[in-house]
Every structure is written in structure tokens, then in C-alpha cells.
Design goal:
The longest helix is centred in the N-terminal third of the chain and has 12 residues, at 22-33. The protein has seven helices and 28 strands. The protein has helices at 22-33, 54-57, 108-119, 122-130, 152-155, 219-223, 303-307, and strands at residues 43-49, 68-75, 80-87, 92-100, 139-145, 160-167, 179-188, 194-199, 225-229, 236-239, 242-245, 248-255, 259-269, 272-288, 300-302, 327-334, 340-362, 367-384, 387-396, 401-409, 414-415, 425-429, 432-435, 440-447, 461-462, 473-476, 482-485, 529-533. The protein folds into four domains: 22-100, Nuclear Transport Factor 2, Chain: A; 108-199, Nuclear Transport Factor 2, Chain: A (Roll), CATH 3.10.450; 233-447, Beta-galactosidase, Chain A, domain 5 (Distorted Sandwich); 460-490 and 500-508, no CATH class. β13 (259-269) and β14 form a beta hairpin. By secondary structure, the protein is mainly beta. The radius of gyration is 29 Å and the shape is globular. The strands form seven sheets. Strands 10, 11, 12, 13, 14, 15 and 24 form a seven-stranded antiparallel sheet that branches.
């Protein structure tokens, strides 16, 4: 891990990639709101760490990158989004960009305010009354991201939402069991005005189904409690976001939009720490729906960019969300007023046994050797509407890195006539169907294997015997060297001659010799045991 030292005092300064503290968020937001560069009624969309670029971070000359925060605000009277960078050392605005005509992510206060404004609209109340729904306290409204279809309302420049409705049987009921079909409300998020109500043929609201058994254990839990114990404690250390486990080193933080973010991922190869990734995250996801029904055809949510996966992260609970010898990390976020709050237990860190890593029985020598595998798990869980997304990073002792997303929660539902099927949806109950949709994820991996520039500058061995105009090929030569068949290129000042050169021909890598395998150490990782125990 990179160590940052304050040259003026000689003491260790806080790392530029360390997670933001609540007091840093409050200071940065206050600096922006009082800077005079944004409207007096500006609302804070989110505050995140202003990460230095990879080149700036790995620069060998000059002072280390200072800590800074990025504050995104929405100026509702001007319908303008602004991004401001704040120095956390001087509490001054160092950069400001006004984005005209751009929409920021949906703020938490807008979800509630939009639903309440729609409920107060007389036209909406009249539509509900036609469907036999009169108690607005038992109506849930989900104001979705509006998407864009080129309609007049989309081109108006307004910050709009397309909202769908559900009728609850009682407080705490599962709303997604009772969708009000063929009813979509288009509203202005800024003013609360309902601009349009799209209505199809009214249909019956699905009848009550088996309620959620809240707080009741599942079948597996009733069979016996699974306990995981580590008498010596966890085999990793974490301090100010810096995580060390076995051969792995990294920094862990939570971004309000992207959610779980890893920095400075490296692998200890003997006494040398080999960098692998400067930054890794699941930067965006989109959920397009394929149903042609009125309530669903427009649904196309970008759950990271539209909502913010970090802002929707759960506070995890020991024994249910995470099991074993757990270490939790809290995360600091900003509200719309610029005040910081803490999400407790936002990130879960733990180890898992992963079976046999290597085994061999030497029958002739009468020796049996076996090594157990283990992995480090870094995870968060975010709730976006009806779905829960679990984001997991796994790190193994053999150098493997794995990313996994687990989807749970409740599916989107569509009301249907009892006993009928609708296109582009799968039946769930006689009165409910699940519209077809996909979950598409985009990962951002900023690689820096063995450093930001891992190419060796050496002349290339050029093969002049077999010119190739269509393809590039590499052949192994003796002693681990390579030569390339590269397309011919006519060089200026060398008329009539064709030489097989390429812009990267002078930067071909000499393969590194493979290190001799070493047996895994048995001692450094504490014991991890699993056992079943019947409940008392």
C-alpha cells in the first residue's frame, strides 16, 4: 500500500483514497452551498471522494495527490446540475462545472415527495375511485425513472417521472402482490405537477395472497443452526479502508453511485507487492423490460446512474446477511441538505473455507499432503425498489479474483385476468405475472499489472520472410523470446522500401520466467471451523 507522509510535519497524512469521513462530507457540502457558485436553493445529490487519476496517483515526481471531495448539486429553480470539487485541506472550491440540460440521479427526498404529490392530484383520485380504490393510505406509488421515448414531455426539459401504483390490503402488506394495472402517471419531479395520466381498460386488482411471513425462519434454519467459528479471530486486518489478507492487499470503500469500490488491489509475491488493479467496481447496471403492457414497456432503469447503489446499501445483520467471524465497515453519505449520516455495517468482510486447494499422496514414500483453500469475501447488499442486489468480490489464495452478483427480493408484477396469460410475461399466480426483463451489468476494471506501465522497451525481432497484410501473429522463439509478423508500412523518406514495423513493435514484452511453486504456509491464517448446532 502506498504510504502518504506530510512533508511539513513528517507525520503520516490520511491516504487520498481513504473513505470520506462524516465530518469531511459535512465540510465539503457546506463549502459548496456557501461558495456563491450555486443557487441558494441547491440540493445536494451526493458527495463522493474525488479520486485522483491513475497517472496522477502513480506520479513519481511532485507532491502526493491531495484529498478532495466531489459534490454534485441540483439547482431546482434553474433545472441545472452542477459538479464541484472541494479541497479537503483548504476547504475551498477548486473546480466547478455547470451541466445545462443534464439530469442528476434521483434524490431520496424526491421518492417520497413525488408519491405524495401524485396522491393529492384530483384527477388521479378520480381514476382510482373508478377502480374501487378510495383509501389513499393503502396506496403505494413507485415513481420510476421516466426513460426517454422522444415524446413531447420527454423533450420539454422537465425532470419527469413515470409512476405506477399498488393497493395494499393493510399496512405492511406486500404491495407488489396488488398492482393497479393500466395506470401510469407522468409527473414533474421539480414542481409536483401531474402532467398526464395514461389509462387503459380497468381490471381487477389481484386478490390477497399468502402474506410475507415476516420474521419467521426458513426451512433450512428450522433444520438446525449453522455456526462458523474462528477461535483465533479473522485472518485479515483492516484500517481506514486498507485491507490485508494473506497475500492480498487492497483498499475498500463505498461510492454513493457505484457502490462497492476497490482500489490498489495487489498480490504479495514474496517480499514484493505486485499491483494488479488501480480501481475495480460495478459501475453501471440496466434493467430493460420486454413487456408491451402500458405499465411496463417504458421501464428501463439504470439502477446505478438513476438511483445510486451506494445510497441504497443495507445495514447488514450478523447471522442473516453475513455468517461467520465478520468485520463490518460503516459508510458515510450525504443527505440533500449536505449533512452527513452513517450507514452502519454497510460492507461485510469475512473468510470462507473453499475446499481442497491441492492434494497429493506419495504412495511410494508413504506421505500424504493436502492444502485447504480459503477465500476472502468483500460484499454489500443494495435494495432498489422491489429488488435486492448482493455484490460480492472473492479473493483466493491461488491469486484468483472473482466477482459475483446475487439477485433476490421480489420480482416486478403485472396484474392479469384470472386464468389468462399475457404475452412477454410468466405466470406467478392466477392473477399475477412477471414481465420479461434482463439485468445487464457493466464492470470498470482499471488494470495496472506490475505497475501503471508494464511494457519493456526492447527492440522487436522482426520476421522478414513471411509478410502478412491481414493478421498479426506471434511465434515463440528460443530462450523465451518472441517475434511478430506485422503488416508492412511504408516509411517517409524511405521511398520504394517496405519495412514491417508497427507502433508497438518496439514495446513487445519479454515473458517473465515462471516462479518455482512454493507450498502454502500452514501457520498464518487462523483456524476456521464449521459445525451444526440444534436450536435450544
Amino acid at each position: 500500500m502506498t504510504q502518504i507522509v506530510d512533508s511539513s510535519t513528517g507525520t503520516r497524512a490520511r491516504h487520498p483514497l481513504a473513505p470520506l469521513l462524516p465530518e469531511e462530507i459535512t465540510r465539503a457540502c457546506a463549502t459548496v452551498l456557501t461558495s456563491g457558485q450555486v443557487d441558494a436553493g441547491a440540493r445536494v445529490v451526493y458527495c463522493a471522494l474525488a479520486e485522483p487519476s491513475r497517472d496522477r496517483f502513480f506520479a513519481l515526481d511532485g507532491p502526493p495527490a491531495p484529498r478532495a471531495a466531489l459534490v454534485v448539486v441540483y439547482e431546482r429553480p434553474l433545472r441545472r446540475t452542477s459538479m464541484l470539487t472541494v479541497s479537503l485541506e483548504t476547504d475551498t472550491v477548486t473546480g466547478c462545472t455547470h451541466l445545462e440540460g443534464e439530469q442528476p440521479p434521483i434524490m431520496m427526498e424526491e421518492w417520497v415527495a413525488n408519491a405524495e404529490a401524485i396522491k393529492k392530484d384530483p384527477a388521479y383520485q378520480a381514476v382510482l375511485a373508478k377502480r374501487g380504490v378510495t383509501d389513499l393510505d393503502l396506496v403505494q406509488i413507485d415513481p420510476w425513472p421516466a426513460s426517454w421515448f422522444g415524446a413531447e414531455v420527454d423533450k420539454s426539459g422537465r425532470r419527469i417521472t413515470r409512476a405506477v401504483s399498488y393497493r395494499l390490503d393493510a399496512k405492511g402488506d406486500n404491495a407488489y402482490a396488488h398492482p393497479i394495472e393500466n395506470l401510469v402517471v407522468i409527473a414533474d419531479r421539480d414542481t409536483g405537477e401531474v402532467t398526464e395520466i395514461q389509462e387503459g381498460e380497468p381490471g381487477p386488482v389481484p386478490a390477497p395472497v399468502r402474506p410475507l411471513r415476516r420474521g419467521q425462519p426458513g426451512r433450512a434454519a428450522r433444520a438446525g443452526t449453522l455456526e462458523i467459528t474462528q477461535p483465533d479471530g479473522p485472518g485479515f486486518t483492516v484500517k481506514d479502508g486498507a485491507l490485508a489478507w494473506g497475500p492480498w492487499r487492497m483498499r475498500v470503500s463505498l461510492h454513493p453511485i457505484e457502490g462497492l469500490v476497490l482500489h490498489e488491489v495487489g498480490y504479495a509475491d514474496g517480499d514484493r507487492l505486485r499491483p494488479l488493479m488501480y480501481r475495480a467496481s460495478m459501475c453501471e447496471m440496466v434493467v430493460p423490460y420486454g413487456s408491451t403492457a402500458l405499465n411496463h414497456y417504458w421501464k428501463n432503469a439504470f439502477d446505478a446512474g438513476d438511483v445510486g447503489l451506494g445510497k441504497m446499501v443495507n445495514s447488514l445483520e450478523l447471522g442473516c446477511d453475513c455468517l461467520g467471524e465478520i468485520v463490518y465497515l460503516d459508510a458515510a453519505m450525504s443527505d440533500e441538505n449536505g449533512e452527513a449520516h452513517t450507514i452502519a455495517n454497510a460492507i461485510c468482510l469475512h473468510e470462507e473455507d473453499y475446499g481442497i486447494l491441492w492434494k497429493h499422496v506419495d504412495a511410494m514414500g508413504g506421505v500424504s499432503e493436502v492444502r485447504r483453500s480459503r477465500r476472502l469475501v468483500v460484499s454489500t447488499i443494495a435494495t432498489v425498489g422491489n429488488y435486492e442486489y448482493g455484490f460480492f468480490w472473492y479473493f483466493y489464495l491461488d491469486g484468483t479474483i472473482q466477482a459475483e452478483i446475487k439477485l433476490t427480493g421480489i420480482i416486478q408484477t403485472q396484474a392479469v385476468q384470472p386464468g389468462t396469460r399475457v404475452p412477454f410475461a410468466n405466470p406467478v399466480t392466477p392473477e399475477l405475472a412477471g414481465p420479461h426483463h434482463q439485468h445487464l451489468f457493466s464492470y470498470r476494471l482499471d488494470m495496472c499489472v506490475d505497475g501503471p506501465d508494464n511494457r519493456r522497451r526492447r527492440p522487436a525481432r522482426l520476421d522478414r520472410r513471411r509478410p502478412s497484410h491481414r493478421r498479426h501473429r506471434c511465434r515463440p522463439l528460443a530462450h523465451g523470446r518472441h517475434h511478430a509478423l506485422l503488416p508492412p508500412r511504408r516509411l517517409p523518406g524511405d521511398a520504394g522500401r517496405v519495412r514491417r514495423l508497427h507502433p508497438q513493435a518496439l514495446r513487445l514484452l519479454r515473458p517473465q520466467p515462471r516462479p518455482r511453486p512454493r507450498p502454502l504456509r500452514r501457520g498464518p491464517l487462523p483456524l476456521l471451523t464449521l459445525r451444526y448446532a440444534s436450536p435450544p
